[in-house]
Write a structure and sequence with these properties.
heterodimer, A: about 550 residues, alpha+beta, six-stranded antiparallel sheet, four-stranded mixed sheet, 12 helices, about 15% strand, B: about 300 residues, mainly alpha, two-stranded antiparallel ribbon, about 40% helix, about 5% strand
């Protein structure tokens, strides 16, 4: 998104992407060729658009008491490819609510947590929300969600509901909630030369073979390339931001090219958009004489307050009829915001915890289902009935995750990537804020699934809240599954207590910006992609001024 | 693509005696396209063939694995792993680099190409790379299978998959985080262990046992500390071979998808169509998106 705005403003832009480019002629006149396909093995089980955990692992622990690490390898592996995480996301395109910008004011002091107000308001972001919704093409219906800030009509109306999602929405309505067709960056009409979605079902986790999904690649980056001002260099791993003798100005970026050689790209402006964890890692790898604790880390706070969404996943079945969630956009078309801070004012008035948006529906394809089935004849019976695929309803709450100064990204002292650089280590433990919200809303979600027709329902959380026994085995699900990675480079007005300014510029540097989820001050209970794009759009107009 | 073209490609490659390293130095894909455009023509000239038996697994190993997959996903009123040729999938995975290393394929058998397998028909409005911007429809490329063309890997991704399949083999460039045992070794040792367990429990080869006795051997492996890793890998790969796209070597005749009522890859048709004249979405009555299946309402 930043590359588009900068290119259109006349900057010469070089995009260094550590993942591969699966497009041919992305900036050409017609729709590009891509290698994206309806292939479960390739995308879900062989990680076509994600870094390989063998060559680019991460590590995880819950606190220093765990020792150096508990998990090595696949830790929250987010896509790295031209187009970034938006390639494989179900790009639910949600605006924040007004309350999200001032949670500190609304919640006061939450012991152990570090809630702060954002240094900007909904009104500051609103024009950029409008613009990025037009750029990527968002479908939705204004007014369908009573908790949405009043707004104009969406660029496109909602497309077909998915049957299971619609069943859940109907049940939610009976229970007094306020479901709506989820705003999402998927075409429901021919839009800017891209076709409408045809509901193939290979959606969340997959690159779209027909470019109906409004990924950053086929929208903003394509626009950037078409200016002739922008160049994408894929399979290039940036590992060092070089600064001048004052330390205030970045001179450019050192990177490993596809053949494994070190290269340097000079630049007047450096923009980090590696997703929060890898942007923090690049800053830490860029440690130098003027930046002894890492680039932009004079506060010593860089990498702290890393946040994920605390997911409460309720599931129930078996349904008598097949819900066929493999048709439609991953079987997920509706959601509701009754459990968010909607107003956090209202949550406080009602004396209930702040949860997050609820996504009604979801799917998995046959290989994923089969891995859950037993072997032998029972495998055949289970797969025929589709008990974990066609007769299961799943709803997920993206719970707001309290920021904590003890949750952090740093460099692992031992584990290296294929290039020999230390990998990112995540130290993360959930706060009672989100655990209590999950305990409050989890049973309500299970009740909803029963109301939709399931014989029985229950819920789990990610990360697991199972108690870790010192020295004992770690539950395999202690790593958050959420790909919503936020914080670590958050915005603020005070250089002593924040990393970036309200436009995403590093306090410590004159020409380095961050435009990814790292900027988030609080995690909010909303899918972050639209807000990340809006922040990038806003920052890119500020750059060089 | 037509077999004739594939043979031409092989002959061409053989003539030049390309080593894999030379190809890499040229920047594999680009150089091949430049030298032999039809290698990258629509649909891919690398003909899909059942991975040759015995490339990694010997005949006895192959027979043992085939029998084991047949117990993990048995035949009943519907085809099981044996009919679906899951053992071909596993051989194809363990020898994923063999054709590539022999200079016979632009990429190892890891990532099938895109965007369409051509199984559902329909015409794409997407441009085809080999047609240089001309639309696909009407150019004679309808219905071809992009999945048959396995993609070249980046240097780093190739290393990752070689480590995963071949193991680190004591090479420093593969052991930046210590030694890794590859799938080839896990299979070689695991199959030996399976046969040994069979002889120990029943004094016969696994392939000669009754289905019930075969299940007993598999349960013993599943419950043992030293062979559980192999058992779990074998189950994962059996499942992948049963339900992955057939271009990877298994799911023969779409047996895995058919018996569970899964329609498989659906592009470029999908399950709905937006009618620009009426401005309404239309659904297939027998494969609805927004409604219950026929007869299940």
């Amino acid at each position: 998104m930043a590359a588009k705005v900068l290119s259109e403003r006349g900057f010469r832009v070089v995009v260094l992407e550590r993942g591969e480019n699966y497009f041919t002629d992305l900036g050409g006149a017609g729709l590009p060729h891509s290698e994206f396909s309806n292939d479960e093995l390739k995308f879900i089980h062989r990680r076509f658009v994600e870094p390989d955990p063998i060559t680019e692992p991460r590590t995880f622990r819950t606190s220093e008491e765990d020792g150096p690490r508990l998990v090595v390898g696949d830790v929250n592996t987010t896509p790295a490819t031209v187009g970034g995480a938006s390639i494989a996301a179900d790009p639910a395109s949600r605006r924040l609510q007004k309350a999200d910008f001032r949670m500190r004011t609304l919640l006061g002091d939450v012991p152990g947590a570090d809630f702060r107000d954002w240094p900007l308001s909904y009104e500051d972001l609103a024009p950029h929300y409008d613009e990025v919704e037009r750029i990527v093409g968002v479908q939705g219906r204004a007014g369908a969600n009573p908790f949405e800030v009043p707004r104009g009509e969406y660029p496109m109306p909602p497309s077909l509901p998915a049957y299971g999602s619609w069943l859940a929405a109907t049940a939610a309505e009976r229970l007094g909630y306020h479901p709506f067709p989820t705003p999402t960056a998927v075409n429901s009409r021919p839009y800017r030369g891209r076709p409408p979605c045809n509901d193939c079902g290979f959606h969340g986790g997959y690159g779209c073979p027909i470019h109906a999904k409004g990924s950053a690649a086929v929208t903003a980056l394509r626009d950037a390339l078409r200016t002739g001002q922008c160049e994408v260099r894929a399979d290039c791993f940036a590992f060092f931001v070089r600064t001048d003798t004052s330390g205030r100005r970045a001179l450019g970026v050192e990177y490993i090219d596809p053949e494994g050689r070190e290269q340097f790209q000079a630049a007047e402006l450096v923009v980090l958009a590696c997703s929060a964890i890898e942007s923090v890692r690049l800053c830490l790898l860029s440690q130098s004489g003027k930046h002894p604790r890492g680039l932009g880390n004079s506060s010593g706070l860089l990498g702290k307050r890393i946040m994920f969404h605390f997911q409460t996943i309720a599931y129930g079945g078996p349904f008598q009829q097949r819900l066929h969630p493999h048709r439609g956009r991953s079987g997920l078309s509706h959601g509701f915001d009754d459990f968010t801070g909607k107003s956090a004012e209202l949550a406080l008035l009602e004396d209930r915890p702040v949860g997050g948006t609820v996504e009604l529906g979801g799917t998995q394809h046959p290989i994923s289902e089969a891995l859950l089935q037993p072997w032998g004849l029972r495998h055949k019976q289970g797969m025929r009935s589709g008990v974990f695929r066609e007769r299961l309803l799943v709803v997920t709450m993206q719970g707001e995750d309290a920021p904590q100064l003890t949750n952090a990204v740093d460099l692992d002292p031992d584990i290296k990537d294929v290039h020999g650089f230390p990998v990112a280590r995540i130290t993360y433990r959930s706060h009672p804020f989100e655990i209590e919200a999950s305990r409050h809303y989890g049973p309500k979600l299970a009740q909803l699934i029963r109301a939709a027709g399931a014989r029985s329902a229950s819920y789990v959380t990610s990360p697991s809240t199972a108690r870790l026994v010192p020295g004992g085995p770690a539950p395999i699900d202690i790593v958050p599954a959420s790909r919503h990675i936020l914080g670590g480079l958050w915005m603020g007005t005070d250089p002593a207590t924040s990393i970036c300014d309200p436009f995403g510029k590093f306090h410590d540097l004159d020409n380095v910006y961050c435009v990814d989820g790292g900027l988030f001050v609080t995690s909010t209970g909303m899918n972050p992609i639209l807000t990340i794009w809006a922040l990038a759009h806003r920052a890119a107009f500020h750059m060089g001024t | 693509m037509k077999p004739a073209r594939c043979r031409a490609g092989k002959a061409f490659r053989a003539d030049l005696e390309l080593t894999r390293r030379q190809v890499l130095q040229w920047g594999a894909a680009g150089a091949l396209v430049a030298l032999y455009p039809s290698l990258w023509a629509c649909g891919g000239p690398v003909e899909l063939k059942a991975p040759g038996r015995g490339r990694f697994l010997d005949a006895e190993e192959t027979a043992t694995i085939e029998a084991a997959t047949g117990r993990l996903i048995p035949e009943d009123s519907d085809p099981g792993a044996v009919s679906a040729r899951v053992v071909d999938y596993i051989e194809g995975l363990l020898s994923a680099f063999s054709d590539y290393d022999a200079g016979l394929a632009p990429g190892p058998r890891i990532f099938a190409g895109g965007p369409f397998a051509g199984r559902v028909g329909g015409e794409s409005r997407l441009d085809c790379r080999a047609c240089h911007g001309r639309p696909r429809g009407g150019t004679g490329h309808e219905g071809q299978n992009d999945f048959q063309r396995f993609l070249p890997l980046s240097r780093v991704r190739e290393l990752a998959w070689r480590i995963r399949i071949e193991g680190s083999q004591g090479r420093p460039e593969r052991e930046f985080n210590g030694p890794v045992k590859g799938w080839q070794q896990i299979y070689r040792e695991g199959v030996a262990r399976l046969r040994e367990e069979s002889r120990k429990m029943f004094a016969r080869e696994f392939t000669a046992l009754s289905p019930q006795d075969q299940d007993s051997v598999l349960r013993a492996l599943e419950g043992s500390a030293d062979a559980r890793e192999f058992f779990q890998l074998l189950y994962r790969h059996t499942v992948e071979g049963m339900y992955a796209a057939p271009e990877y070597g298994g799911n023969a005749g779409l047996a895995g998808w058919r018996f569970i009522g899964f329609e498989g890859d659906r592009q470029p048709v999908g399950y709905s169509r937006f009618n620009v004249d009426t401005q309404e979405y239309e659904e297939f009555p027998d494969m609805p998106v927004s409604r219950p299946n026929p007869g299940e309402g």
